[in-house]
Amino acid sequence: MSIKPIKNRVLIKPEPVSTTTASGLHLPGATHKDNDPFKATVVAIGNGDEIDVAVGDIVIVPPHSGAEITHDGEKHFVVESGHVLAIIEG
Fold it and tell me: Which CATH number fits domain 1-16+35-90: 3.40.50.720, 1.10.540.10, 2.30.38.10, 2.30.33.40?
């Protein structure tokens, strides 16, 4: 089953939170903070005229954006494309 957002909405999948520091230390119980923007991968886009992202883009989204759904056993969000703060390039 696939999910196709409508209008100016996008389906995103949150990136996993890193549990290891740059120096290799393991952080047990590391989780995303509820009030911090988070990274996500764009999985599908709607057919609206005002969508500035593409499938596969890594984006930054503010907390509490959109509707949380479970798809194929994984957490996803359907958000308005205007809620995407930035695209991570490179």
Answer: 2.30.33.40
